[in-house]
Structures are given as C-alpha cells and as structure tokens.
Amino acid sequence: MIKIENLSKNFGSLSVLKDISVEIKEGEVISIIGPSGSGKSTLLRCINLLDRPTGGTISIKGVNILDPRTDVAKVRQKMNMVFQAFNLFAHLSVIDNLALAPMKLLGKNREDAERKAHELLKLIGLAEKYNSYPDELSGGQKQRVAIARCLAMDPEIILFDEPTSALDPTMISEVLSVIRRLAKEGLTMLIVTHEMDFAKDVSSRVLYLDEGNIYEQGTPQELFGNPQKEKTKAFIKRQQSFYQQVSSPDYDLYSLIAEVESFCNRHMVNLKSRQDIILLIEEMLQLYRQSSLSFPLDMTVNYGEKTEMLELLFEAPPGSLNPLQLKGEDNAPGLSIIANLLQNHEYNSSESRNRLSLYLKKPQ
Amino acid sequence: MIIQTVKEASVLVVSVSGRMDAVTAPEYEKKFEELISNGGNDFVIDLGQLEYISSAGLRALLSTSRRIKDNKGSIHLANIIGNVKEVFDMSGFGSIFPVHGSVDEALKIITG
Less Cβ around it within 10 Å: N or C end of chain B? Predict the structure, then answer.
C-alpha cells in the first residue's frame, strides 16, 4: 500500500529524517512513537506531501508520489490527514465542514454529501451536533468532527498527527475510541501518538523513531513487551536518569544525597523508594570506597515513570572488584541491608567497564 | 546528628537525633569515648528521634557497645521505630542488642 525507501528530509542544515525505509500493507494500523523532535510528524507530512522530501521515494499503491508527473490532488483523495489542531472551518457548521470537500473534490451533490455526513456523525456519536459551529464544540468533539470530515472523502489511508495532544485528559478517550473503531474496520492508518497504552492496544505494528530513523519496530507485544534496544527500553519505561561521577573515595555524601533527592522530587518518586535509594547509594559507596581501583565511579539513577522502578547503575574502571562479593564482618550489615533492598541485580565485567545494575524492590 | 545525655540514677540516657551515617558515625563514637572516659557504665540509647541510620551507624553502635561491655557496663536501645527499625530488621541488628519500647522500660530493666 505504502512503500517508503531511503526517505530523507532536511530543513536547511537540519536533517530531520535521515534514511527511512518501511513498507505498510493494506489494513495495517501503524503507530509511530518516539521522543519529541524525532521526525514523527515530519514523516507523516512527507507521506502526505505537505513537506517535500529531500531524498528517497514514496509509493502509494505502486505510484511514485514524488514523481513531478503524479497528480498530487488525486493521491490526497486516497489519503487524508487528521491534525493536532483540528483545522475545522470555523465559519461553517459541522455538516458543512463534512460536506464541503466531497462536493468540491469528489463532485458529489449536496444531498449525497449531507446524507454521508449524517451517517458519519452518527458513527462518531455526534449526530445531534450537525448544525453546531466548531466554537460550540468541546476539543474532543472538534477532533471527532475532524475525523468524520476525513472519512467523508472515503480515504483508503488516514494519517493521524498526534490527534489527542491538544485535548484535555478527559476528552482523549472519546477520540481514541473513534480511532479504535476505525482500526477495526480495516482502514490503513498511520498514527503519531504519545498515548502508549492506545498504541499498544490499537496497532498491528509500532515504529519507534529516534533522531530521524526507525530505530526499532515490531508488533506491540514485541516493542512494548520486550524492546531490544536501549533507547526504546528507556522510552517505553518513560525512564528518567540522574548521572553523577564519584571521582574519589572522599566523595561528598551529603551533596550527592541532595542531588538524588532533588531528582526524586522532580519525578515524584514515592517517599519510601527515595529513602531506599539513598540508603542503597550510601551502602554501595561504602563498599566501593574500600578499593581505590573503583574510582572514578560512574553512578546513574534510572527511574521508570511508567513502571515506578528505580535502578542504580554503577560503572567502575576495569580491575575493580564486584563490591557485592566483599567479605568480612564489617561488610556484613551493609551487604545484608543491600540484599533486603534489592529485587535483583546484574553484574557484567568487561575489558572497558565493570557494570553493576541494582534494581530496587518496589514498595508494598 | 545531635546527641543529648541525661543521667537517670546511675544510668546515662543518650538521645540521638538526625542522621547516623558514614559522615556522622565517627562523631557518635567520639562522644561515647568521652562518656565512657567520664565514668559512664550503663547506657540507654534513645533512637526515637533518629531519622536515618545506615550500616555505618550500626557499626558505630556495635563498636561502642563492645567498648562498654569490655568495661563490664551495659547498653540498651529504646524507641526503635520507622525507617530505623526497618534497617535494624534488614541487618539483623535488632537481635544483637537488648531493645525496649521506651526509655522507661529500659531503665526498669537496668535498675531492677
């Protein structure tokens, strides 16, 4: 249905899309996720030719839409787009917003266009609003009308560019439920979204974009359940990180604790987990400081806002020991406290770094 | 960390508040050296106002306890609550010391 090969898009010296290749089959529902600025919306705008790609090819049903001889208006009739900001005509009633394009572009008469518009308004649950003006509708209702307007053109492909990001949380679900319903009807859809639960639920495939490339893709089960790459993992867990290098055994414990507390405050880490991570940091540093080979020591606190999991990661120079293997009466209380705080841990020793990941138990 | 001492008959009640960690544990040990040198023999350590303790604090408690026992004295802990209790439980230190629910309870045991 859609075949994209080596697509790139530059804005001046800024390379927004680098080398995108993907094939989308008829009836697929593709969610495009990724951090802000990763090129998600630009990819949709390139597919719809709202932005002209710098390089590569895009074919829709075998037609190269970047070929200057291609009739762009005809391509756009097969493919319609729903925007963040609704883009309804404020001076037209709901029914006229829906009927206008089919009359102008598809040559339908008013009666047919309005009949279809009424059907679509029923589909989106806004049948009684046909005579209202956009200003009289809530954000969620406006977006549902924008979707209906899109459907009025009988598109084969719908592109959704963050359809819920301009909505209050209370209105998001009404829009998502309309999109879910369309997904079940077999329309080919590409959806740029920040709603991870929705993407997981509605998509046949998820593309994770990062820095202008498809960094990872897979079924929702694969991408959300078992992401393979670091950036995808961090994004899915909505991971926040705090990094500090501990340069010597004479570190400033209180300054370090203050930084970690501030990080925990910023990300609303619950009180018990905060107390536990601070205790864990002190206990671990007490063990590490027994060998000067452990320094400089890189310490990272990772917090998954989605999972509410806290990870404490230490990366020590090669030659340093695994502190959890230390013996001796003095170390016993610390090791016992650490063992009680942790859900699990992983230690990897390599030629360049010794890496110890400690995962804190979630509070009961 | 703030350490305050009150004498109840022959027993010194030492109240510790704030944090007992790698930074403050040496202060605690130093204070006890002073109290023992000044003739202190039987102690109740009131931890009711202690906000935080790490294994460094526990080691300090243990080392002073050994010093006191070497002098044929006694040490009892009172009011171990909240986070501090959790750390005692995690480390198994709760079973090393005689622990009491209140200072009065500890004093009754010591003074018979």
Answer: C
Contact B57, B28 (CB under 8 A): yes
Contacts of B90 in chain A (CB under 8 A): 336-337, 340-341
By the CB < 8 Å criterion, does B26 face chain A? no
Spell out which residues of chain A touch residue B52, defining contact as CB-CB under 8 Å: 275, 278-279
- A361 conformational bin, left if phi > 0, alpha if psi -120 to 50, beta if neither: beta
Q: Do B91 and A253 touch (CB under 8 A)?
A: no
Q: Under the phi-then-psi rule, with left for phi > 0, alpha for psi from -120 to 50, and beta for the rest, what region is A319? A: left
Q: Which residues contact A251 (CB under 8 A, 6 or more apart)?
A: A285, A289
Cα A80 to Cα A44: distance, rounded to the nearest angstrom: 11
Residue B86: pLDDT band with limits 50, 70, 90 = very high
| Interchain pair A337, B87: CB under 8 A | yes
Local confidence band at A73 (pLDDT 50, 70, 90 cut-offs): confident
pTM above 0.80, yes or no: no
- What does the pLDDT read at residue A75? 82
Query: Which three-class secondary structure state does DSSP give residue A132?
Result: coil
Q: Chain A residues with CB-CB distance to B under 8 A?
A: 253-254, 275, 278-279, 282-283, 285-286, 330, 333-334, 336-337, 340-341
Cα A314 to Cα A359, B70, B91, distances in angstroms: 12, 40, 23
Q: Are A18 and A211 in contact (CB under 8 A)?
A: yes
ipTM rounded to 2 decimals: 0.95
* Chain A CB contacts of B56 below 8 Å: 282, 286
Q: Quick check: helix, strand or coil at residue A310? A: strand
Query: What does DSSP assign to residue A109?
Result: -
DSSP characters for A237-295?
TTEEEEEEEE-STT--HHHHHHHHHHHHHHTT--HHHHHHHHHHHHHHHHHHTT-GGG-
CB contact under 8 A, B59 and A333: yes
Check: CB of residue B11 under 8 Å from CB of residue B107: yes
